[in-house]
# Entry
Amino acid sequence: MTRFTREESEAARDRPVPDVVADGLTVLFCGINPSLTTAATGHHFARPGNRFWPVLHLSGFTPRRFEPSEQGELLAHGLGITNVVARATARADELSAEEYREGGRLLGAKVERLRPRWLAVVGVTAYRAAFGERKATIGPQQRTIGATRIWVLPNPSGLNARWTAATMAEEYARLRVAAQE
# Structure
């Protein structure tokens, strides 16, 4: 894993990261927004300590643990990645309520266009802010976007100490089972 200097990380601020998407995915995973490390590398969930890639494997979505640089291989498994907000920041709390709402609107349009079976938002706070669902909890949601169902997953950030990799993998596996039905 490449370590970036403070200057290199700051140079990535506000830089968008291209989505890993295709039409008709089984699951489109949706992060909050890119970290500076993700923006600097161009690879989703690239920040050291982020548990997305290990949890994706532990939950059975992938046959092995992928590295962030292998994100394109997800498409062969019917999986993709996008974000609620495209702008890279050091912390999600740098995003405004308006950015979340606009991100939710743009995400809805993207989902209508791509038609994944499931949209998996990784972070209940981001889901609440983007879609105005103040009482949403982890798990499947009542709301749909067209025919796309929504599942809110725990945020895999290393800062989310409430969830271990094992307990996150259990929740991600619940989605995997639902997506296979």
